[in-house]
Every structure is written in C-alpha cells, then in structure tokens.
Automatic annotation (TrEMBL):
Lineage: Eukaryota, Metazoa, Chordata, Craniata, Vertebrata
Keywords, ordered alphabetically: Cytoplasm
Predominant location: cytoplasm
Localization of this protein: Cytoplasm
GO cellular component: centrosome; cytoplasm; spindle
Protein name: P2R3C phosphatase
Gene Ontology biological process terms in this record: B cell homeostasis; cortical cytoskeleton organization; microtubule cytoskeleton organization; positive regulation of B cell differentiation; regulation of dephosphorylation; T cell homeostasis
Domain of life: Eukaryota
Length: 148
C-alpha cells in the first residue's frame, strides 16, 4: 500500500505526462528559455512583513545610489565656470558657444560625475547649424540639468 505522499507524487507525474502529450510534446528543447532572466516579481502581500521590509530597503538603497550620481549645486557651478572659461568665440548674439575640442577639455576637468555628458553623441545631438561646428553652452548646461 502506498503512502499519501507517494500517491500525490505519482498523480503529479501522470498529470505532467498527460499534459505534455496533450500540449504536443515533451518540455521545450530550446535552452534559451532557461536563460531568460526573471523580470517580474509580485508585490508582497500585507501579511508578508519581511518581504515588504526588504522591498522598502532595496528601494531606499536604489534611490540613495541614484542620488549620489546626481550633480550637487557646487558641481553644477563648477561645470558652468569651466564651460564659460572654455567658450569659443565668436559669440552668437548673447549666446556663448563651445567647440568640440574645448568641450572635451571641460569634460576632463569637470570630474567623474560629469563624464557621462561629455560624449560625441551628446555634442552631435546639440549641434545646430553653427558655421564653426560649436554648440551653445547654455543648451548643453540645460541638457545636463535635465538629464543629471
């Protein structure tokens, strides 16, 4: 005579076997399905206090890490000072401009937090019909304040 646990296991095996036959074959042979990362985690229920605390703590750590990446007021002032110091003449009306060479110099001096903004892609994105191939310092600074 089989125990209740053995009966349940046998029932599960039979269920899996018949389900797979009905579905049209055995388990998928495609290995990539086992490599797909999990991207959805259900929210913890109200009675799962430990999981709720873990979620709150991980969110707080994430937000702290993101806030450390942001430029503080002093760093923004330093960036503006460097941009202003390295502007390339002539000005267009009241608009100060900077060429790519000086843009890279400012990127080296501005510090590690600013490094992400001093790329050719961003320079090209902000380049608008300037006959000397320059970008507006104000437009770049506003870009950094929006994105950073």
């Amino acid at each position: 005579k089989k125990s209740e646990q053995e009966l349940k296991e046998e029932e599960m095996e039979l269920f899996t076997k018949y389900y797979m036959e009905w579905k049209g074959g055995k388990k998928s042979d495609n290995v990539s399905y086992t490599n797909i990362p999990r991207f959805y985690y259900r929210l913890p229920a109200e009675d799962e206090v430990l999981l709720q605390k873990l979620r709150e703590e991980s969110r707080a750590v994430f937000l702290q890490r993101k806030s450390r990446e942001l430029l503080d007021n002093e760093e923004l002032q330093n960036l503006w000072f460097l941009l202003d110091k390295h502007q390339t003449s002539p000005m267009i009306g009241e608009e100060a401009m900077i060429n790519y060479e000086n843009f890279l110099k400012v990127g080296e001096k501005a510090g590690p937090k600013c490094k992400q903004f001093f790329t050719a892609k961003i320079f090209a994105k902000l380049l608008h019909n300037d006959p000397y191939g320059r970008i507006s310092i104000m437009q770049f600074f506003n870009y950094v304040m929006r994105k950073g």
